[in-house]
Amino acid sequence: MFSLSSQALPLARSVVRSFSSSAQLQQKVAVLGGAGGIGQPLSLLLKCSPHVTKLAVYDVAHAKGVAADLSHISTASTVTGHVGKEELGAALSGADVVVIPAGVPRKPGMTRDDLFNINASIVRELTEACGKHCPKAMLLIISNPVNSTVPIAAEVLKKAGVYDPNRLFGVTTLDVVRARTFIAERKGLKVASINVPVIGGHAGGTILPLLSRVQPAVTFTQEELDQLTLRIQNGGTEVVEAKAGTGSATLSMAFAGLEMAEAVLRARNGEKGVVACAFVESNVTAARFFATPVELGVNGITKNLGLGALSAYEKKKLDTEVIPELLTSIAKGEKFVKG
Q1: Global pTM value
Q2: Neighbour count for residue 315 (Cβ, 10 Å)
Q3: Active site annotation includes 62
Q4: Which of 20, 56, 143, 206 could link 103 by a cystine bridge, Cβ 3.0 to 4.6 Å?
Q5: Which structural domain range is residue 38 located in?
Q6: Spatial separation of the C-alpha atoms in residues 283 and 164, rounded to whole Å
Q7: Catalytic residue chosen out of the listed positions 51, 82, 133, 202
Q8: Among 76, 67, 124, 84, which Cα is nearest to 100's?
Q9: What pLDDT digit, counting tens, does each position of 204-233 carry?
Q10: 282 and 148, same structural domain?
Q11: Distance between CA atoms of 274 and 266, rounded to whole angstroms?
Q12: Does residue 129 sit in the same domain as residue 278?
């Protein structure tokens, strides 16, 4: 049975465990963009994770200060800071997992696609370095627009001759986190009890929460389906507007990034049955990349669990909204690298 929230590690428990248990496997995580709005809280959460042995914080500026600050936290992992292109190789050398939140944030009125030209170049450069310095690492792409940046990363790794589709993930976990939260609020449920797959992509109408498959089983009126689906799809815009020009979703994205990183780390550590939704290379739809639940193992994806049963409402959205937009975004990313 598919389960996502059972894979989530609540923050308080994660912090407590980091003092009392040690990772079975020595695992290095590199955060590229670690001094940014997502990178700093994500690095803090990873410092508290019992699955991280070494944490490398990289950015174009301020990473050494962030690393020094983190290094004073009394958890078992060690922290190093790396600044500028000349230190990127040291940050990546020996990394088992690389998380990339680097890039510019959204501002009011901007879509994820507006960020393409700047963030596409950043992801291309950082992925090239990953291909050179840690070609076997698991790559977790947070930088938006994920629907295009993941195809960019794939093409870069192909050019380097080191592409493994089972090791490249677009982090769509925030859509799952939001879905759990909004459903719990609407239905008066405990958020920790909720499982819900979210498929498709990671931008607006490409985000498709499968509300017909919520566990524990709940029913929704058509109005609730429309309202919840739209709110989950527009969760990022909700935060951008609430922050009124001062930023986008950073803290919730950091939490979601931790959840995805820990899923990969736990699977690398030998834990069985670890499942997460992620935007990965896929043949389950016409879109070459597509987010579905995937089962994880020591070497990355072991099985794509596919679409599963869809309601008529979900099937219509998939065919008329999700796939057409994804095909365009994926092609845009591929063209950026291929020229």
Answers
A1: 0.92
A2: 13
A3: no
A4: 143
A5: 10-172
A6: 15
A7: 202
A8: 124
A9: 999 999 999 999 999 999 999 999 999 999
A10: no
A11: 8
A12: no
